[in-house]
Amino acid sequence: MAFSARVSRDVIAQINVTPLVDVLLVLLIIFMITSPVVTHKATMDLPHPSSKPILEHPGPIHLAIHEDGTLYWNDTPISQSQLRTQLSIAATASTQPVLEIDAADGVAYEAVARALTEAKAQGLASIDMLGER
Fewest C-beta atoms under 10 Å: which of 15, 25, 48, 61? Predict the structure, then answer.
């Protein structure tokens, strides 16, 4: 029993559109699911502009601590009691300046800790430690 397969040498000029329709339907479903997420409106409470003038921040205060423990407030030598007074004046200002502490390489940790503790005790909110330059 022999089967003969009919082999035709003719070129089929038709396009199979079934896979194309399947892909388009999947894309349609994806877009239908994701479109509400994309069009979702987010509400934000933005600050309202005020008529008050914007206060400019004062320049930073540079506190240098040298290796021997001497303190310099903006390049002016001060004592520990003068440091306490200067820090309290800076802390009570309407806009507090930034305190930049520049400790030398060989300074004792105790001197730096004392200055940090005093600044925090007086109420300074922003203290920066300067590193290598």
Answer: 48
Strands 71-73 and 127-129: unpaired
Amino acid letter, 33: I
84 vs 120: CA distance, rounded Å = 11
> pLDDT (tens digit, 9 = 90+) per residue, 24-62?
999 999 988 888 776 767 788 888 887 777 667 778 899
How far apart, in whole angstroms, are the C-alpha atoms of residue 91 and residue 83? Answer: 12
Q: pLDDT tens across 77-132, in order? A: 999 999 999 999 988 888 888 999 999 888 989 999 999 999 999 888 888 888 76
Angle at 124 between CA 122 and CA 126, to 5 degrees: 160
Cβ neighbours around 101 below 10 Å, total: 18
Please report which confidence band the pLDDT of residue 133 belongs to, taking 50, 70 and 90 as the band edges.
low
CA 99 from centroid of its chain's CA atoms = 21
Helix axes of 80-91 and 109-122: crossing angle, nearest 10 degrees: 30
- C-alpha to C-alpha distances, 56 to 2, 59, 95, 97, nearest whole angstrom: 100, 9, 8, 10
